Amino acid sequence: MSEALPPAGASIPQSRERFVALWGQMGSNWGIPRTMAEVHALLFIHGKPMNTDDVMDELDISRGNASMTLRNLVDWGIVQRVHRRGDRKEYFEAEQDVWKLFRTILRERKKREIDPLIHQLRECRAAATDAGGAEAGGAEERDEVAAAHNARLEELLSFLALVDLMCQQILQPGEGSDAAMEIAARFMESTA
After folding, report:
1. Among 45, 73, 88, 158, which is least packed by CB within 10 angstroms?
2. In this structure, are residues 121 and 160 in contact, taking their beta carbons and an 8 Å threshold?
């Protein structure tokens, strides 16, 4: 289901609303709560600090939902708290540097998803090595089953090691992106 983009000459509020909806859909597709993605999109596209009331009004969400979502975005490091002198309300603004934003999201996804997956796969490999192929017949057959099992896990671990290395390179300040692309090019050549 693809919604049409605002026509040329559409108002900024219409375009902003469409962007928030698109970002929310993308976040949802990536396993991020839609409201979290929409709040981030609103703060990003607005480009100026907004308080919780502004976010609630703009997205028609509850105070609890807005507060929890803003706290999660701050924890991810893609939204910062901002204080306005003379105003007791807390304001929030999204990171505006797209590369810094990408790196922050990548660092969080790596920490929450890639690193634990690598750890768990290593545990699976170790458990299979320790147990052998308990469901198989003799010792030789158990060793063959365990070796085949671990070979499949090794292939996955090798791929994830490459992904991990690319992530680390991208997360490095400076020339990290160039290095990651070089690694990707070498990988593609080796698999061709």
Report:
1. 88
2. yes
Tokens describing residue 96: 């505006």
Amino acid of residue 79: V
Are 47 and 36 within 8 A, CB to CB?
no
- CATH for 12-94? 1.10.10.10
Region 1-21 average pLDDT: 74
Query: Residue 40 in contact with residue 71, Cβ under 8 Å?
Result: no
What digits encode the pLDDT tens for the residues 119-175? 999 998 888 776 654 555 577 887 888 888 889 999 999 999 999 988 888 888 766
Q: Which of 154, 159, 118 lies closest to 146, judged by CA?
A: 154
What is the radius of gyration, based on Cα positions, of the chain? 23
Which residue is it, tokens 């099992």?
149
| Nearest CA among 84, 1, 76, 85 for reference residue 44 | 76
Give the start-to-end residue ranges of the domains of the chain: 12-94, 98-191
Q: Is the pTM of this model over 0.85?
A: no
